[in-house]
Structure formats: C-alpha cells, structure tokens
Amino acid sequence: MGHDDDPPDFSERRLRERRSADRFDVVWSVDCETDDTFLYASITNISELGIFVRTNQPLQVGTRLTLRFAVPTASESFVLAGVVQWVNPLRVLGENLNPGMGISFVDLKADERERIVDLVRTIAYVREAVKN
After folding, report:
1. Would you say domain 22-131 falls under CATH 2.40.10.220?
2. What is the DSSP letter of 114?
3. d(CA 122, CA 128)
4. Rounded to an integer, what distance in angstroms lies between the CA atom of residue 60 and that of residue 52?
5. Segment 16-60, tens digit of pLDDT
6. Strand partners for 88
7. Beta strands 64-69 and 24-33: pairing type?
8. 82 beta partners
9. What single-letter DSSP state applies at residue 62?
10. Contact by Cβ (8 Å): 68, 77
11. Do 104 and 63 touch, CB atoms closer than 8 A?
12. Helix %, strand %, coil % for the chain, to 5?
C-alpha cells in the first residue's frame, strides 16, 4: 500500500489516521463540484475529518472539489472544500455494493470546522441516547 521509499509503518499509520475519527451512517444529498465536473450523489457516512460519497462515477484520487450539502437539523447548508482520498470503483461484474469515494475536508475555516464537529457530536449524542 505504501511507496517503496516510505517507512515500513507508513501505510498502517495512514490507515489508522483515516479511521481515527468515528464515522456515522447518514443519507444526505451532496453536490460535488470541480472546475470541470458537477456530480450529484449521496453522503452515506460522515466523521469530523470527512465523508463517504456513494456514486457510480467517483472522481480520481487527489481531486480537489467543493462539497455542498444540507443537513435536516442545520439552518444553513454546508459548503466545504475537500480532496478525494480513496476510491471504491464500481465493478460491473464484481460484488461491490458500495461504490464511491472517501473525501477529506480541507482548508476549513475555524467556524466551518466547529460546525462539522458540532454536527458529528450531535449525531453521536442522539444515537447514543436512542440506544439507551
């Protein structure tokens, strides 16, 4: 998974970092926009660090994009910058029930970061309360 010149634990460290934030399943519409592409898709999970966008047409790893999505409990829509970190491509003949792309939030202003953190913590709190 890592590059030949990476330290031996580089890939493991990246995987841990990728999974270091709790993820929560959601179903929200999202617009993903680049300079030359507009994609309408669905967010299927969110963390404080990013989202998974389910789509049969994922963008290439490293693609910078603008994400626009509304959350039922928020008064304002989110408009955030992101970068495609990994892709789970559609495999027509294979068993891939979850094609899409993992996107990390980047270049967030303090208020944007705070809104995302508050949103994710609210989801966590509500879901924990429902369990109990």
Report:
1. yes
2. H
3. 10
4. 14
5. 555 567 888 899 999 999 999 999 999 999 999 999 999 999 999
6. 100
7. antiparallel
8. 65, 105
9. T
10. yes
11. no
12. 25, 35, 40
